[in-house]
Amino acid sequence: MMKLLKSFIYAFEGLSYAFRTQRNFRIHCIALLIVNIVAYFFKISSVEWAIIWLCIMAVLSLELINTAIEKLCDKVYPEINPNAKIIKDVAAAAVLIAALGSLIIAAFIFTPYFLKTY
What we know:
Structural class: mainly alpha
Number of helices: 4
Shape: globular
Order of helices and strands: HHHH
Number of strands: 0
Strand content: under 5%
Distance between the termini: 53 Å
CATH architecture: Orthogonal Bundle
Number of domains: 1
Radius of gyration: 17 Å
């Protein structure tokens, strides 16, 4: 039981590290708050909530993986290295694709609500 508890503590330490040190992670967290406020305001359906939260979790998870990859590259390649750059760029691209996809999905979900309201 103690091992399980420690694993949760370590995971929360990872979240805390990302929030404290990664500007993009904080930006995604702000977006999470804004999207949730808008979704609450429009009273979106349960399915729409599920889709929104899948998008949020995908982006945040990829941002955390990107951070881990960057830290590992910095350790393995202390000097500037073209391979490390490629690795970091590809990991960042994964976050970008998830974020853009989430933005498109949000537009599909929220546009009808905005059009009804305004």
